[in-house]
Amino acid sequence: MSTGKQALDELKALGEYVAGALPGAVTRQAISYDELCLHLDPARCVEPVTFLRDDPKCRFVCFIDLTAVDYPERERRFDIVTHLLSPKYIRRIRLKVETDERTPVPSLTGVYPAANWFEREGWDLFGVFFSGHPDLRRLVTDYGFEGHPLRKDFPMTGYVEVRWDDEQKRVVTEPVNLNQAFRSFDFLSPWEGSGQYVLPGDEKAGSQGGQR
């Protein structure tokens, strides 16, 4: 296994080799954290992935991971990030594809069947649509869930809450209702309590003169 400058030179050469074999499919390349990162044309991303798997100089036969990163300030707000491994050359590679909320990204399930659940997770949590996926439906959230909870603009409380209704004797789904009781905090020492109201359990302290 190469180290230092030689390893960086090999990664740079690999990036140039892939880009040269598929003109236009690789839009940019960089080396970060000692790994080669290729930015791919979204419309042609399946071509370089197949090449990386099958070419004798690459042999990235192991699919490791696929996820999304949200940058709401960008026009194409999502990076679809894929990691592959070449056991033959003991080398990893990172692939990035940019897309927005409306533009589908070609599915990699035809190249790596293991991408199936990762892409379903990307659709469920980020709302990225993978065209050609054999079964693109939610994976983590429940049936009927609204929105995509890992987007940066998704509220931390969510839109609905699920609870047990003792009167109806069943689980109900309803809009989030935040109880504001006991939220007038004074941000001083929590051991001294608040001078504006009596905390539950402190009633006796007030009656004995211990309340400040």
Number of helices: 4
One letter per element, helices H and strands E, the order comes to HEEHEEEEHEEEH
Radius of gyration: 26 Å
CATH top level of the largest domain?
Alpha Beta
Widest beta sheet: strand line-up: 1-2-5-4-3
Q: Structural class of the secondary structure composition?
A: alpha/beta
β-strand number? 9
Write the CATH homologous superfamily of the largest domain: NADH:ubiquinone oxidoreductase Nqo5 subunit
Described by strand count, sense and barrel closure, the largest sheet is: 5 strands, mixed
Let me know the average pLDDT.
86
First CA to last CA: what distance?
Answer: 69 Å
Mass-distribution shape: elongated
**Roughly what percent helix?**
10-25%
CATH architecture of the largest domain: 2-Layer Sandwich
Spans where pLDDT lies below 50 across 5 or more residues: none
CATH topology of the largest domain: Beta Polymerase, domain 2
Please characterize this protein's 3D structure:
The structure is a single chain. The chain has 212 residues and is α/β, with parallel strands linked by helices. The chain has 2 domains: 4-131, Beta Polymerase, domain 2 (2-Layer Sandwich), CATH 3.30.460; 182-212, no CATH class. The protein is 21% helix and 26% strand. It contains 4 helices and 9 strands, in the order αββαββββαβββα. It has a 5-stranded mixed sheet. A two-stranded parallel sheet has the order 6-7. The mean pLDDT is 86.
